[in-house]
Target: Fucosyltransferase
Amino acid sequence: ASFWPLASTSTQEKLLGGLLVPGFDERSCLSRYRSAFYRKNMARSPSAHLVKRLREHEALQRRCGPGTEAYRAAAARLRSWHGDGDAPGACKYLVLVPYRGLGNNILAMASAFLYAVLTDRVLLLDRTTSLGDIFCEPFPGASWLLPQSFPVRNLQNLTGEVRESYRYLVQGDDAAASVSRRRYVFVDLDHSCTYHDKLFFCDDERRFLRRAPWLLMRTDGYFVPALFLNPAYQEELDRLFPRKDAVFYLLAHYLFHPTNKVWGLITRFHDSYLKNADERLGIQIRVFDGDTPFQHILDQILACTSQEHLLPDVVTQEPPRPPAAGTRSKAVLMTGLSSWYYENVRWKYWQSATATGEAVSVYQPSHEEHQLSGYTTHDMKALAEMYLLGMTDRIVTSGWSTFGYVGHGLGGLTPWVMFRPENHTAPSPPCRRAKSMEPCMHGPPFYDCRAKQGADTGKLVPHVQHCEDMSWGLKLV
Ligand code: GDP
Model:
């Protein structure tokens, strides 16, 4: 197998090129320092500037996070708000309210974290989801989970309609002054959000939102490409990410460490079914038209893997070529809510020999049948499967799926994306190699911050382009 033997993994490799700090208790979160053993090498290394900013951010989370005097003071001001304006030098916070599926949550967390780093805000996560059960804490000596006693209740019910909404502030006469008069500012980045909500992406927080100690944000997706279009952050982002195609990859390796239970699911599956194969192919199937099996989607999977030479053809005439000694083995990891596609692909390679003589084994860790949310075991399986997809060598994903984006993004893999079928027919071509390993932003702004007018935001800078799977979406390349 092509994985590094344990002994040769140096401390620098274990710490992912400086992304991670030593000093965490290893046993309480095994994945943190062991994931390097399961990876061939880092697809991209962090820049020295990113490493420096991460260390500074950790210090901020420690100084201002839950349990500190600074947090108590900020929460107390929020609780008994008298419209008393700025508290100079106080810590500033970004509370993220993630929602929808786990893939959506992960992309939202990565994006919010980058925004928090850019704006020196402490990132805290609303804990109505199972995120606290499936991820270890990323920051040393500070929790990123919002305390239960947080004064604003029912965060999941906040919408862009609330009085504190950015949407209204930005339309007011003196937005900067009105920020100071609000308890908090709510930024709604749901994909139903309005033109005015999206002006947030052009906001220079240093002049305006800086005055808001509490920023509450609702988003279910990856908004990093929009940050790259905001002139206020351009210089800093250039220094943080000299290569623009691995922002999610680096942020994800910094932030997301599965808890021991999830890590057990990952490593046992990997060691049993994937490790010893000569090559691993991931196929992620996400169907948005319902949970029943569809022939056209099976056709699409088979057409894609055949046309792109990801899986060998089978021979139909008997007798097949006798397998040579030392046959190459290919392990196929399929993920999806249904097992029907997996059964069919597996049967194809069981029923017939491959033309190349390769041995193809096909596995699917779970088939949950229906999407659920907030159930810890269900989310554990979903996370394990995204992570396992990232441990393959090549990957085919379903367009539009944030689950798939996380799978290939974590693995540093540029996927073959299957286009979303229309009218129940397999599209032609069935799939295409993506331009980069980055996730797609689904609800981008259509506004040029510099020119202050509507624009095709996929044409403003070379490293922000439209996605393969969603023509209006934006991704970093
Ligand atoms: P998206 O809807 O494809 O963008 O991905 P999300 O992860 O946001 O939401 C889909 C949810 O459905 C996941 O979080 C899981 O709860 C479930 N799900 C979808 N596909 C799979 C799969 O292949 N395996 C497992 N275990 N769960 C899945």
The radius of gyration is 23 Å.
